[in-house]
Write a sequence for this structure.
């Protein structure tokens, strides 16, 4: 399996450290950052391929469900660029 990175922009802006710490207690593969009134949550999830991560496996769906379980809404999802194309040597 490979690791795929997803970053979510969520609403509302989260600046409650207790809520963030509680979220960390449920998701050990997430990082929360806030800046300029925006909250970003980054996940690293395992799947056999990017297609599986996005469509078949629970990698993306489970991350969205965990965010929504906190009452937060996912507004945008970014797939990390290094997941899109394999590194090649010259």
């Amino acid at each position: 399996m490979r690791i795929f990175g997803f970053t979510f922009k969520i609403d509302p802006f989260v600046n409650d450290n207790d809520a963030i710490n509680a979220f960390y207690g449920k998701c050990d593969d997430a990082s929360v950052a806030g800046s300029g009134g925006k909250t970003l949550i980054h996940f690293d999830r395992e799947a056999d391929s990017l297609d599986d991560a996005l469509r078949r496996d629970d990698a993306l769906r489970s991350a969205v469900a965990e965010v929504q379980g906190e009452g937060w809404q996912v507004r945008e999802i970014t797939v990390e660029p290094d997941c899109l194309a394999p590194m090649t040597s010259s």
User: Anything to note?
Assistant: The chain has one domain: 2-80. Helices lie at 17-26, 50-56, 59-69.
